[in-house]
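User: Working on a comparison across species. This one is MBL fold metallo-hydrolase from Herbidospora galbida. Can you predict its structure so I can line it up against the others?
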Amino acid sequence: MTEVTFTHVGGPTLLIEFEGLRLLTDPTFDAPGRTYDFGFGTSSTKVAGPALTPEEIGPVDAVLLTHDHHDDNLDAAGRAFLKDVPLVITTHSGAGRIGGTGLRPGESTRLNDVKITATPCRHGPPLSHPIVGDVIGFALEWPGQAHGPLWITGDTVLYAPLRETARTLKPGTVVFHLGGVRFPITGPLRYTMTGRDAVTLLGDMAPANVFAVHWEGWSHFRDGREGIVQAQLPLTWFPMGEALTAEV
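Assistant: Here's the predicted structure for MBL fold metallo-hydrolase from Herbidospora galbida:
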């Protein structure tokens, strides 16, 4: 059994602490108010800031970066934070741009006793990869886990490889990236999962702990807290900026 402390900083940024390790996902620390260009006529305004500053978080052992090319997953202040991080694990293409260890889906690396495996993501509708680029999730496994791997889905829609990952990985803890991202210029097309999608994906696994991040704080989220509640997703809500401890 391992007790893991999770602290939701905001957006996709999550501090994960266990057995002396401190990991941070997708660092985003910019103040709210700015509109960011996501390319091909898409944009979004940041409407909420982080609950903690980089100084309040302090040093971390590694950053798990699902992708580097969208500002809602790595913004200017997040890039500055990376300069003092000893290890960044990200996509293979992202590592070519910012450095660090690059992984393709299915590939693994290790940090002490922790095996970190990249899991598949499709950050948009079919055939959108040339536009949206490479994105990965992360599965973390280490000796003594009570319920199974810790899975961070990353920014993805619900599609067959994601469902296969749920069935084969059998995670004990899941951190969903949700929000049902949509843009006016692309109409009904979605770029991340909704609460209903998460409920469907839960049908392929039986985790003991269910959490969600990256569903608030930006104008491009169209399925926020209300959508998650309406879908009756059985998750534990993070107290923003406060530590939550779970048996993993």
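For your comparison, note: The mean pLDDT is 97.

User: Helpful, thanks.
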